Amino acid sequence: MKNRYLLCILLTALMLYYALPHLAFSVQHEAGIFSIAWLGLALLVFAGNLTAWLYAPKKQRANKNVDKPLPKRVKSHN
Description:
Shape: rod-shaped
Radius of gyration: 25 Å
Structural class: mainly alpha
Transmembrane segments: 36-56
Strand content: under 5%
Number of strands: 0
Distance between the termini: 55 Å
Number of helices: 3
Helix content: 55-70%
Keywords: Membrane, Transmembrane, Transmembrane helix
Largest sheet: none
């Protein structure tokens, strides 16, 4: 799951790297409003994936054996 978050972060960064030189940031035109909205949504995607990647629960393979109850031992009478 963490690999998917990392992949999305890298793809978003690549998309931002490619798109930033082509965006016009003048608020007076429709293209500027679109550019600002697109940049805002791209930053939300980046932040959401980064947050999910950092706060994803860690795999606890070693702790799964701790939760199992131990089998009961039978006492032998010698």
